[in-house]
Amino acid sequence: MAWLEETMKWMWIAGTIVAVLAVMPAAAVAADPAAARQETREEIERFLAKTPAKTPAEVDIMVRGASPGFRFSVGDGLVNVKDGAEIGVVVRTETAHTFRNGKVGRAYVVARPKGVEVDMNADDLERIAAKR
Questions:
Q1: For the chain, how big is the Rg over CA atoms in Å?
Q2: What was the pLDDT predicted at 66?
């Protein structure tokens, strides 16, 4: 099953591993299914052993690229996880918001306790906030 290792290497170079699909010839599966599964498992483990570890931040970037979801929803009240101070209420979310400094990214528009609406970088807010 050297082709499997080559296929997975190609998937890694092209981006991230989303799923590993091992297709076994029908004869190999029919002969001894347990041996075929073990061989596939060993191939995958050898590949993963050669794959460099990802930091949590890199994993987060990979996941966000595939699914730009938001942790908080419109109407959620947010507080700071460190001191419990109120941050505000989520008014809307934007997947491609242009910030004042010119950068574009995921954002929450939050109504602060005094009524002022501010745009906040989604990644930063999700690290420091929790639902009320």
A1: 22
A2: 43
Could you tell me the end-to-end alpha-carbon distance of the chain, in angstroms, rounded to an integer? 52
What CA–CA distance (Å, rounded) separates 104 from 98?
A: 4
pLDDT per residue over 35-54, tens digit each? 666 777 777 777 777 777 76
CB 108 within 8 A of CB 70: yes
Q: Give residue 67's pLDDT band: very low, low, confident or very high (50, 70, 90).
A: very low
At 124 the pLDDT is: 92
Token readout for 132 is 């009320």
pTM: 0.49
H, E, C per residue of 16-84: CCCCCCCCCCHHHHHHCHHHHHHHHHHHHHHHHHHCCCCCHHHHHHHHHHHCCCCCCCCCCEEEECCCC
